[in-house]
Amino acid sequence: MTTHFDQVNDRHNSGSLKWDFMEQKLGLHEDGLLPMWVSDYDFKAPPAVLEALNTRIEHGIFGYAERNNEYYQAIISWYKTRHNITLPQSWITTVHGVLPGLSIVIQMLTNIGDGVVMQTPGYGSFRKITELNDRHIIENPLLENNGYYTMDLDHLESCFSAGAKVMILCNPHNPVGRAWSEGEMLAVAELCKKYNVWLLNDEIWGDLTMPNHCYFSALSLPNELQQQLVVATAASKTFGLSSMRISNFMIPNEALRSQFTRRLDSHGMDVYNSMAMCAATTAYQTSAQWLDELKSYLQSNIEYLDTFIATQLPMLKLQQPEAGYLAWVDCRQLGLDDKQLEKQMVSAGIVPSMGIAFGEDGKGFIRLNLGCPRSTLIEACQRMKQALS
Question: Residues in domain Aminotransferase class I/classII large (predicted)?
Answer without folding.
Answer: 38-383
